[in-house]
Specification:
By secondary structure, this protein is an alpha/beta fold. The protein folds into two domains: about 210 residues, Aldolase class I (TIM Barrel); about 80 residues, no CATH class. It is about 45% helix and about 15% strand. It is built from 15 helices and ten strands. The chain has an eight-stranded parallel sheet with strand order 1-8-7-6-5-4-3-2. Strands 9-10 form a two-stranded antiparallel ribbon. Strand 7, helix 9 and strand 8 form a beta-alpha-beta unit. Helix 3 packs parallel to helix 4, helix 4 runs parallel beside helix 6 and helix 9 crosses helix 15. The protein is globular and about 55 Å long. It starts with a helix and ends with a helix. The mean pLDDT is about 95.
Amino acid sequence: MKTAITEMFGIKYPIICGAMMWLCKPELCAAISNAGGMGNVTAANYETEEDFRAAIRETRKLTDKPFMVGVTILPSVRITADHYNMYLRVCAEEKVAGVEVSGAPVDKACGMEYIEMLNKAGVKLFHKVGSVRHAIHAEKSGYSGIYAAGIEEGGHPLNDDVSSMVLTPRIVEETNLPVVTVGGIANGKNLAAALALGADGVMMASRFMTTKECNVHDNIKEEVLRRQEYETTLICKTIHLQARALRNKNVEAILEVEKQGGGLEGILPLITGERIANAWESGDIDVAPMMVGQSIGLIHDIPTCEELIERMVHEAEEQIALVSKKLAG
């Protein structure tokens, strides 16, 4: 399965893991890369340069394959502007394969010198965007590729609220960069559909959360299996930090605060990173916002990363062959 993404990174399959707080660490990252996909080390898991650099080097001990680093540039109590600069500088120094940037673009948040630094180091810079205008800005700024993130995704979809079905071909039309479809991706049919829309690959996170190698409590994994595509909702719209999360007691409390006009002061205690870390470890499904996408409706088991990726590719090939047969009459 050759695309612009597999050629760019020298990977077997165009299947990439998205950033996940507290979960995208060396073990999961290496398992995905070793299976032929592209793993992810999420930078915000690490507060010091020493720990961040050590995580990159630990990943390299576990895999000799390429992997991404996820850097999310959004308002945070714990992560500062200095952290973003450090993450990008270390990525350049360590010459990681690629960087996934979410939120503010690097040139505006950190400065053009960081894009130039990454490009000079041979690090492929991708921006996760929810609109054509942001994709065009990324191309003009010197990014290497685009993650087209539809409203279906977990985490922080853009409040333009455009679906992957529309966003992917629109960005393909308007830019000349490789495009990766994000949002609603969980199986081989989704992979085949993304390729048909003009994408060069897919990125998913919720699906990788429910794999054997993901270090999250089994209660969380089983809860994701039980839930359906309609059981997520958008929160934090009133503070301009829109996020998609699984409906639970915590999310209902957030929505009530928003309904009452509680603002950032009322919402912040309910969305802290500490809450999320506690949920992943304890298995308490109601203590924190669980940032998962609508793709949970397509998740029915807990395979290994290798089993998942190989199955997806096989399903995609079958689906492409089926469509070709239909068209041939």
